[in-house]
Write a structure and sequence with these properties.
The structure is a single chain. With 91 residues, the chain is mostly helical. Helix content is 67%, strand content 0%. The protein contains four helices and no strands. Helix 1 packs across helix 3 and helix 3 runs antiparallel to helix 4. The longest helix is centred in the last third of the chain and has 23 residues. The radius of gyration is 13 Å and the shape is globular. The mean pLDDT is 85.
């Protein structure tokens, strides 16, 4: 896998994890923990999750030399997702 595959995979995982912990979803019981500061990089904030998930996915796929770049690119895509999500919720 190249870096772009890793970035898209990590962004997809971040979006899936974040959306599945919303109210009414399969992992709704985790929703009450989203406000805890120490869980934001795991389930609470797509932008915070992007950095860590991007590095983890790139290292798991063998893209070791570009893991930091993958983390930044995943963070950027997750930030775009967060902006689009906040725009869609406004009335």
């Amino acid at each position: 896998m190249n870096i772009y595959d890793s970035v898209l995979l990590a962004t997809s995982i971040v979006i899936a994890v974040y959306q599945s912990t919303e109210e009414g979803m399969i992992f709704e019981f985790l929703h009450k923990y989203k406000s805890k500061w120490y869980l934001k990089p795991l389930i609470g904030c797509p932008t915070c999750m992007g950095w860590w998930y991007g590095i983890a996915v790139s290292l798991a796929n063998g893209v070791t030399l570009q893991a930091i770049l993958c983390g930044f690119l995943t963070l950027a895509l997750c930030e775009v997702y967060s902006c689009l999500l906040s725009i869609s919720y406004k009335e």
